[in-house]
Structures are given as C-alpha cells and as structure tokens.
Amino acid sequence: MIANESHGFYDFFLFAALSFFALLLFIVVNVSQKVQQTPKLRSVAILVLGDVGRSPRMMYHAESFAKLGFDTYLIGYKGSKPILSLTSLSNIRLSYLSESPPLVTRIPFVLAAPIKIMYQIATILYALVYGIPRPPEFIVVQNPPSIPTLALVWLVGGITGSKVIIDWHNLGYSILALKLGKTHLLVNIAKRFEIMFGRSAYAHLFVTNAMRNHLEQEWGLIGHKAVLHDRPPSHFHKCPPLEVHELFIRLGRSISPSLANFLPGASLPYTTQLTEIQGLPPYSASPTSAFSSLSTPTLRKDRPALVVSSTSWTPDEDFGILLEALKLYESRAREANLTNCENSQSKHDSKERQVLPRIWMVITGKGPLKNRYMAEVELLQKNWQYVRCTSLWLEAEDYPLLLGSADLGVSLHSSSSALDLPMKIVDMFGCGLPVCALDFACLPELVKDGINGLVFKNASQLAEHLETLLTSFPSSSALDSLRTNLQRALQVPLSVERRVHNHQHQEGADWEWGSWSENWDRVVKPLVLRDSERFG
C-alpha cells in the first residue's frame, strides 16, 4: 500500500514537472516574440503576490496610474473584493493568478513545496508575458514577498525592455527570520536573493526614510530612489452621525447576541448601539416614511467608547499586549467608578456619572492566531464589566466607515526590519482617528507622540493611555485635542518648503498630512513621465 502511494506521488510529481516545463517553453516562445516589440507608452503591470483586495497600497498605485491615463494591469490572487473606485475605472484590467492544483495539498510537503513554487513561477511569467498584449512601459512589484517575484520581474524587464519599479514595503528575509532565526541558512540565502535581484531597478519606492537610508547605504541600490509614505485614498474620512447610524443598521444584525447586555439597546432603524434619532414615529407611519421625517441621528450619550484595532493575527503583532492592557483597564475602571459612585452617594447626587467608560474593542482582520486569542478573550470577559472584545470581518467599503465611526485606534504592529510603517495607522489617520501605537524605531515618521496619538512600549503604558484618553468620555479633552490636531492637518495643503524642513528632522517641525493623490503626484508621477516620450 505504501509503495503504491509513493509510486502515485512520483507519477504526480513527474506529471507536474513535465507540465511546468511545457508551459515554460510556451512562455519562452512568446517572450522571444515580445522582444521585437517596444514597450507600450503609458502602460503598467502591477504585480502583488497576494490577495489583491487586501493589498491597499498596490490598489492605490493602480488607481493613480489609471487616472494618469495608463493602461493598467493589476496582477495578483483573487480573494477580498477590490475597492469600488478601482474597479470602476475602464482602463484597469484585473488579472488573477490561479492557485496551485488542489491535489498538491494531499502530498507530502517535500514534494508539494517545489511543485507550488514551479506552478507559481509559471503562472506569474504567463501573466506578465502572455497575459498582456504588449510589453508594459513599467512593471511595479511589491516587496515582500521577494521570492520569486524579484527574479521574475528582473528577467522579464531585462528581456522586454519594461522598466521595473520596486515598491519596498519591508524586507522579505527579515520576515522569514521571525520564524527561523536571523542566523538560519535559508534566511541568509533569502537575503542574498533579495540583494541580488532587488539592488538594481529603474526606480525604488520606500515607505519610510529609514528604509531608504538603510538600503541605500547597506545594499548600494541602483536607480531612482524616492520615499512614498503611505496615505489613504480620499474616501477615508471622519463619519458624521448619519453615516455611523447607517453603518450600524447594516452591522447591527450581525453583532453577537453575547453583547446584548453590554451595549445600549437598539431598535432598528431608529436607534443603533451608538446612535439615536430623537422623537418617536407615529404608529400609522411606515418605517421608511417615519424614518425620513425624523431629525438627523445623533451619537448616544450612553454609548461605549468604540476602540478599533486591525491585525493580521501573526507573531509580528503581539495581541497579548492588548489583552493584558484590557485586563488592567477593566480593573482600573471598576475601582475608579466605584469610588466615584460612593462619592456621589455621599453628596446625595441623584445622577451617577462614570469616570471611565465601557470599551467596545473591535478587532478586524484574518490570520492564523485569531482563534487562539479570541478563545482566551471569551473566557476572560465572562467576568468583565467594562470591556468587551469582539472580532469583525468587514467588506472593503465598510472598513473605512468603521474607522470613521470609532473613537480611538490601537496599533500592535512591530516591524520585523524596524524600517516599515503600519498601513493601519495611515488608514486611521485618514479617518481622523487618533491612535495608541506600539513603539519601534521609525514610528516617529508617522506617529507624533502627544500630537496625533500616544506611543506605548508595553501593556501597562497602553492601559494608562486608554485611561488618560477616555476619562469622562464622551467629553474627553485629551482625546478631543488629538482629534483636532488630525483634522487640522487633513485640511491644510502640504507645502514644499515645510516638507524639506521636516525631512531634515529639525526641532519644532510641524506635523503634516497629505492625501495619497498629493503624495503620488509629487513622488511617482515625475518618475513615470520622465522618459515616456521615447516609447511609441
């Protein structure tokens, strides 16, 4: 029986290998034909080796190229739904890579791994060479992952004449080192691979100044180099009460019944857990007509503080810090509110007012550690009075609305390279949402402690920040101050002189914010239009 299974695996592996080489030969033939064509003016292929719908920066790149008049081919894996503003553009083509055959999952890893890699190489080459009518003027590739994408775009760009732009989000080998250790042989091989195929490109884009400086000095990058800080698109905004009301009418029915005794009661469509409409509708009126005749929704004074964190539930984001901080907050809220209640009774105060509010902690995202941590949360919060933590998966269009409805954001991101910045904070700032962020080396490029958020190093500090920002909620002066700074920065256009001033890290430099479009037009647009007139 074992011999038959081994023979079956051998046959399958041989079949997969022959199929790969046949496909590779087919692609090579097409590449030889492409060599005779010059790259098409104003065209770009954007490659992301991941779920396209969960790759916001690459979707924003595609949208910006398309709005500039480029024929844009966005290549990646199918999964979450892409943003609506992307799919509505006529000159964007979504090209989805196919997953490896289901049979691969049934064979041993030592056989499955090379088959998956070969299949991935074949499908990427096919998409870049055969799936596009004519070689694109530019190929933009996201890094990481580095293997095999950097080598493939290097090869295709060298053969067809397409100019390669590497968008450095992080370092691939540093992520691998989290699992295997910095001294592991495979980590060293991955680093050499990344240097070899990532060192030379038409242009290099970086998410931080720290990453640019590091790679420029340590790796000696060749090509144009520019920092393009992450920024959210224009539809990210602070939600007025009407939008909050409409969002929680949609989400209300999906909220766990276990929250019924914690959240304020809701009577849809007139009241939600966070909003209410003053005045009762006449009994004779239909819900639709009654709803339209009532006043605009307002935020409920008895609502909990809505705190949001987005996580990939991976080892580089220690959810344990947040869990411990929530434990501490629960303890402090009980003590503070009990003391306040006793003082109120001694003064014959007829109305009790909580010093620290209840927190509704909403965690968005998917990942491998989600079930483990959420099971732990469920056990803990059975005895909690002031904190509830729930996980929520949102469609792309509802995610910015949740951020725009929240009172505070939390980031647990700790960079594997200490050179990148968390996109989740960028999204929160775009929605006017102050953050508490875990500290690491280049975080000050984004989070200005005490201006647009607060920085913490451990659970105790995070609990203290929650207490500071939420005291006397919803009338919290500390939280209002951070929110005002964010709104002011969002409304003031960037100036070149102040950008230079800030880039030099001089003391007293004002914190600024600009939209994705402003940053992209300033940084990337000159690069992609620089030599385009020589193509036809």
UniProtKB/TrEMBL annotation:
Q: Name one Pfam family in it.
A: Glyco_trans_1_4
Root EC class:
transferase
Keywords linked to the UniProt accession: Endoplasmic reticulum, Glycosyltransferase, Membrane, Transferase, Transmembrane, Transmembrane helix
List its EC numbers: 2.4.1.142
Where it sits in the cell: the answer is: Endoplasmic reticulum membrane
Name one molecular function that GO assigns to this entry: chitobiosyldiphosphodolichol beta-mannosyltransferase activity
SUPFAM superfamilies xref list: UDP-Glycosyltransferase/glycogen phosphorylase
> Where exactly are the transmembrane stretches of this chain?
12-32, 103-127
Q: How does it sit in the membrane?
A: Single-pass membrane protein
The stretch of residues making up the signal peptide is none
Looking at the UniProt record for this protein, which Gene Ontology cellular component terms does it annotate, in alphabetical order?
endoplasmic reticulum membrane
Pathway given for this chain reads: Protein modification; protein glycosylation
- Function text: Participates in the formation of the lipid-linked precursor oligosaccharide for N-glycosylation. Involved in assembling the dolichol-pyrophosphate-GlcNAc(2)-Man(5) intermediate on the cytoplasmic surface of the ER.
In Swiss-Prot or TrEMBL terms, this protein is called Chitobiosyldiphosphodolichol beta-mannosyltransferase
Q: What is the lineage of its organism?
A: Eukaryota, Fungi, Dikarya, Basidiomycota, Agaricomycotina
